[in-house]
Amino acid sequence: MSGVHVSTTVNGDATEYVCHPGETLLDVLRNRLGLTGAKEGCGTGDCGACSVTVDGSLVCSCLVLGAEMEGREVNTVEGLADGGTLHPLQDKFIEHAALQCGICTPGFLVAAKALLDRNPDPTEQEIRYALAGNLCRCTGYDKIVHAVDAAAKEVRKQQKAAKKASGKKRR
Amino acid sequence: MRYESPTTTREAAALLAKAKGKAFVLAGGTDLLVRMKSGLIDPELIVDIKRIPATQSITKTAAGFRIGASVPGTQVGASAALKKAWPGVVEATNLIGSDQVQGRCTMVGNLCNASPAADSVPALVAAGAKVAIVGPQGRRTLAVEKVVVGPGKTSLTKGEIVESITLPKRPPKSGDAYLRLIPRTEMDIAVVSAGVSLTLGPKGVIKAARVALGAVAPTVVLVPDAAKAIIGSKLGPEALAELTAACEAACNPIDDKRGTVEYRTEVAGVLARRAAKIAYERAGGK
Ligand SMILES: Cc1cc2nc3c(=O)[nH]c(=O)nc-3n(C[C@H](O)[C@H](O)[C@H](O)COP(=O)(O)OP(=O)(O)OC[C@H]3O[C@@H](n4cnc5c(N)ncnc54)[C@H](O)[C@@H]3O)c2cc1C
Ligand code: FES
Ligand code: FES
């Protein structure tokens, strides 16, 4: 079996790897790049624990081949925090106790981030639909939905503050 | 196994035709990778078509809308022009899986996977969509309902690839709709589904219609008798009763824990009726 050589970007860093042609992106991330945030809950696209984004679009990395990533941009849960500063989603998950065993958490965070990027003011129903591809066996979902709602408020507040600050600078 | 990602459809077709073992097209991979991992298939070659520019976009042409074979569900949902002309097709496509699946799944993959419960297919059949096929012998065009011949089986021959789907040009006063029944609100396979597309003539009388049913036979079925039942009508109670009877007569479903034969048959009529009403309203009928 010949390996496929791939040059790609992961969480903003230029990355190269050689993988088997049939190897999933999830296995590449976990086993070759040491990024073990994304989890394998099912391996069949049903649980969302392996969620990452590829060129900005949310996918299950267990249903993507590593070989497909040439020239693409992959973002994982490891890229969510800004250095030592947690993303509001991470803060609110902790604050609202939106996790127990934590297996599903990286997937929920990545999927929720994709939602807020596209819609920073989602209704509860929109949050529930956007997270329908993520399963959690522990929390019962309510705490997760509340955490995402609270994080959305925080993100909007930060965006408003950033806008104000940049407006002042221009003047 | 080998992985190839050619940049033209001809090259892709040549690679598939030359393959010694089992060779598969990879679009979004949401069916293919599941089948590979479960050991149902063991490909010698996978040909990824996502780097082929001819498969990547949605374009408005003289013939209607051309949707490339690697366009994922999210891109379909983001096309305002497509949504306006074919809301039923877009809604059906966007029903496939979760947001994660939408980021990858294609209409053509949904079609070529050849499941009788594929969500976009009844809407595409009702719409009268056609596929453009590229193979070692050149190009051909085929009606969507001729692509699938049985569960998991298509009429494509070795080396053939669907390059795009074309939805025909829409006359004024047209509308379409797709409905499926699942026991939950998201993430489930249709127990029964129905797609209806129609065009109104003067005074709100239906002058053209197509009705298709999913998950009630080995393939998605076009039901000409159901269309006949509503053509010439304003969708009054009599026409709706005839539509229901025609749909029930076209059902040949399986009997399983998700739905008995009787249940699936009855629901097929109900969904076709409701979808026809939505399509009629969308066409401007009252
Ligand atoms: C979690 C989950 C939920 C799902 N939910 C739904 C659902 O609600 N409704 C539904 O209908 N489906 C559902 N599916 C199934 C699947 O997502 C769809 O059928 C999807 O549209 C397949 O598209 P794809 O691009 O991923 O296909 P792929 O997996 O890439 O391909 C599917 C098949 O078609 C062939 N093929 C693909 N493109 C071409 C082409 N251009 N020419 C020739 N052959 C081709 C492939 O070789 C393969 O055999 C779900 C799947 C998952 C994993
Ligand atoms: S591991 Fe990918 S969806 Fe469950
Ligand atoms: S916290 Fe355990 S699965 Fe979600």
Characterize the structure shown.
The complex is a heterodimer of chains A (171) and B (286). Chain A contains five helices and five strands; from the N terminus they run E-E-H-E-E-E-H-H-H-H. Chain A has 171 residues and is an alpha+beta fold. In chain A, strands 2-1-5-3-4 form a five-stranded mixed sheet, sandwiched between helices. In chain A, strand 3 and strand 4 (57-60) form a beta hairpin. In chain A, helix 2 (88-95) packs antiparallel against helix 5. The mean pLDDT of chain A is 96. Helix content of chain B is 34%, strand content 26%. Chain B has helices at 9-18, 32-37, 73-77, 80-85, 87-94, 99-102, 107-112, 120-127, 224-230, 237-250, 261-282, and strands at 2-4, 23-26, 45-48, 58-61, 64-68, 130-135, 138-143, 148-150, 153-154, 161-168, 174-181, 192-200, 206-214, 221-222. In chain B, strand 13 (206-214) and strand 14 (221-222) form a beta hairpin. The longest helix of chain B has 22 residues, at 261-282. Chain B starts with a strand and ends with a helix. The mean pLDDT of chain B is 96. Bound molecules: flavin-adenine dinucleotide and FE2/S2 (inorganic) cluster (2 copies). Flavin-adenine dinucleotide (FAD) binds at residues 24-32, 34, 49, 69, 95-97, 101, 104-106, 108-110, 112-113, 118-119, 156, 161-162 of chain B.
Tags for this entry?
heterodimer, A: 171 residues, alpha+beta, Ubiquitin-like (UB roll), DNA polymerase, domain 1, 2 domains, five-stranded mixed β-sheet, B: 286 residues, Uridine Diphospho-n-acetylenolpyruvylglucosamine Reductase, domain 3, Enolase-like, domain 1, five-stranded antiparallel β-sheet, four-stranded antiparallel β-sheet, 26% strand, globular, binds flavin-adenine dinucleotide, binds FE2/S2 (inorganic) cluster
